[in-house]
Write a structure and sequence with these properties.
The structure holds 2 protein chains of 2 kinds. By secondary structure, chain A is α/β, with parallel strands linked by helices. Helices cover about 35% and strands about 15% of the residues of chain A. Chain A has one domain: P-loop containing nucleotide triphosphate hydrolases (Rossmann fold, 3-Layer(aba) Sandwich). An 8-stranded mixed beta sheet of chain A has the order 5-6-2-7-1-8-9-12, sandwiched between helices. Chain B has a single domain, classed as Rossmann fold. Classes of the chains: A alpha/beta, B alpha/beta.
């Protein structure tokens, strides 16, 4: 049904996550903290030039904005008040790895899950997964823990444990139902990411694998900014073979260069498909421009490997089971494991 | 009653219908569906005028798919001139941040407010002219771009509708469900759902494999009371066509009269299937517009 044109859509009645902002420890934090000049206030004027802009606080649109004074003061921007807390929390996390891809649906979350499962296969290795895809969290489903919830304790939010040595944090655990949409603009997403880093009781971790949404926007900038002092060990970039995907991945690698993140390597997913009936391999997503291999060569990064498209991978993700455990002998598993071994090797050398 | 106006409604006064292509999940084929939708609407009548706006700012794919990668946008006294994918006939206008980048590998690293500003410019500064349909391709998620888009077009709400694209597997359906909750929260009418990548035909033996499962989209549409517009299998011909559109363009550029991409698209298996999707979608759009006219009357004018 269409609504009458002069009623504005209730765009901002999106606070469907009461638990998030009612937690006492968080409320306290929000109210005592100085307003963060880098965050655009909820009620910023429509034509806000952006707080990073030279015109910040000086543009016509800034008149009446609650943030105007801070923006206009033009003093060197105060460091984010949460940064020291994040750095403190991250001192017990040894390796921080981002899983990136400019394009959506190329298998970032699936790869993240497989990588973490593979790390955690060694009982001595403490592994964590942080899902910063706020609007489309898939990690809980892929790991088979979609109905779990996050609990608050004295030392922070307890992540959800898939097994003793695999901790997971995702906005998916905070929604009343998986149907709920998280209709948040950047500043709110950034706020939650900061909380994932400083308020979650990660404990000691050998690896923290961060799954990201597609693109190069708020989530990506925030995670880089928040982990600046703690250091990101590197990023694994995922792509599919066709040019439309490679285009976006080129941009993502450009982003990594701009912000100074080391690219550990490139993984080509959905690379070729073996027909279960006649066993012939065909290319669903044709590498019309040379695929990931050429991209890796062009951009001077390592090609970690190619994983063939196997319908059982998607099915395993739907059912929340580990593809590597279910089908250890499949060509895709071999490819995954070779890539993961190589990532471990690279990380040991750093 | 005096109609409220803002720069967006003034600029888009001559746009009859706005169809927003949504999906919670990335990589399910929003851009490929948007492109096909635009091509189909374009082909629906020899005088149909169609616009396609790509608001995926950090991952624009539309220019490549329409074979206009590398084109630039020109400034005129009446605003930015969109890129016409069909050459001199100028019935298929296209706008994307991809046209504004110097190199194809440049990343657009923007936070929300900048994306918001860009979208507003796309809506107020582009000389769209008369359009029967404006198809808007969106990025995955339910965040800045989507909120900005709907906010800017709030005054022309009666001309807005949306199509949800999904792939059949559960992980994608979950995001599609979130997307549907979003449209309900903002009161955006849905014309229906399209299931993409539903099965793949082995080119060797003809066996159909459900690479990403099958039927999930139809099931969800039924449960949620949405019209199911149709399913599209993985079509390698289409993938190749949309992927390499500009590689072959150099050959086609000599005969500018014919819109080469459309001709080659018509020959793909997807084109035939999409015709039915278009028909069903237009039926829904008609129903919607009749209802709207009855209710809000003058707003449609």
């Amino acid at each position: 049904m269409k609504q009458n044109a002069d009623i504005k859509p209730p765009l901002f009645e999106d606070d469907k996550l009461p638990i998030l902002f009612e937690r006492p420890e968080m409320v306290e934090d929000q109210s005592t903290a100085v307003p963060d000049p880098r965050l655009v206030p909820e009620n910023a004027p429509e034509h806000c030039p952006g707080t990073e802009s030279e015109l910040a606080g000086k543009a016509d649109a800034c008149n009446g904005c609650p943030n105007q004074e801070i923006c206009a003061s033009n003093q060197p921007k105060a460091p984010d008040t949460s940064l020291p807390f994040i750095t403190e929390r991250m001192t017990t996390v040894k390796r921080k790895i981002l899983v990136l891809s400019g394009k959506g649906g190329v298998g970032k979350s699936t790869f993240t899950a497989q990588l973490a499962w593979a790390f955690a296969a060694d009982e001595q290795t403490q592994t964590g997964i942080m899902d910063v895809d706020i609007c489309g969290p898939s990690i809980p489903t892929i790991l088979g823990i979609a109905n779990e919830q996050v609990h608050a304790s004295a030392s922070g939010w307890s992540p959800v444990y898939v097994q003793d040595n695999l901790a997971v944090m995702s906005v998916g655990f905070m929604l009343p139902s998986s149907k709920n949409a998280v209709m948040w603009r950047g500043p709110k997403k950034n706020g939650l990411i900061s909380q994932f880093l400083k308020d979650v009781d990660w404990g000691y971790l050998d690896y923290l694998v961060v799954d990201t949404p597609p693109g190069t926007s708020d989530e990506h900038l925030s995670i880089v900014q928040y982990l600046k002092d703690s250091g990101i060990d590197g990023a694994v970039v995922i792509t599919t073979p066709q040019e439309v995907a490679l285009q976006d991945v080129r941009r993502e690698i450009d982003f990594c260069k701009k912000v100074g993140i080391r690219v550990l390597g490139l993984v080509e997913n959905m690379s070729g498909f073996v027909c279960p009936s006649c066993k012939t391999e065909s290319q669903i997503f044709k590498p019309t421009t040379g695929g990931a291999k050429k991209l890796a060569a062009d951009m001077g990064i390592e090609m970690l490997g190619a994983v063939p498209l196997d319908p059982r991978i998607g099915k395993s993700a739907d059912y929340g089971v580990s593809f590597l455990d279910e089908y250890p002998d499949s060509p895709a598993s071999t490819a995954y494991l070779d890539i993961i071994d190589r990532i471990k090797e690279i990380l040991e050398d750093i | 009653m005096a109609l409220q106006e803002n720069p967006v409604t003034i600029r888009l006064k001559s746009v009859k219908n706005v169809i927003i292509v949504l999906s919670g999940k990335g990589g399910v084929g929003k851009s490929s569906v948007s492109t096909q939708l635009a091509l189909n609407l374009y082909a629906s009548s020899p005088i149909a005028r169609v616009g396609i706006l790509d608001v995926d700012l950090t991952g624009p794919s539309i220019p490549r798919m329409l074979g206009v990668d590398g084109h630039g946008v020109h400034q005129s006294s009446d605003g930015w001139v969109p890129v016409y994918a069909d050459g001199p006939e100028a019935r298929l206008a296209c706008m994307s941040v991809g046209f504004l980048l110097k190199n194809k590998g440049d990343s657009v690293v923007w936070r929300g407010p900048k994306k918001n500003g860009m979208i507003r410019q796309f809506l107020t500064d582009v000389r769209w002219g008369e359009l029967d349909y404006l198809v808007i391709d969106t990025p995955p998620g339910t965040s800045d771009e989507h909120l900005s888009l709907l906010e800017h077009m709030a005054l022309m709400h009666s001309r807005l509708s949306a199509v949800i694209v999904t792939t059949p597997q559960a992980v994608a359906l979950m995001d599609a469900m979130k997307c549907l909750s979003f449209t309900r929260a903002v009161n955006l009418p849905i014309l229906g759902m399209i299931e993409n990548m539903s099965g793949y035909v082995c080119p060797c033996c003809g066996e159909v494999s459900n690479v990403f499962s099958t039927g999930g989209g139809e099931e969800m549409a039924r449960k949620e009371g949405l019209r199911f517009l149709g399913s599209l299998p993985v079509d390698t011909e289409l993938v190749t066509l949309l992927d390499a559109a500009d590689l072959e363009k150099s050959a086609a550029v000599s005969d500018v009269q014919s819109f080469g991409l459309l001709q080659r698209y018509t020959a793909t298996p997807s084109a035939e299937l999409f015709k039915n999707i278009r028909t069903r979608m237009l039926e829904e759009l008609d129903v919607l517009n009749t209802v709207t006219e009855g209710r809000v009357g003058i707003v449609m004018k």
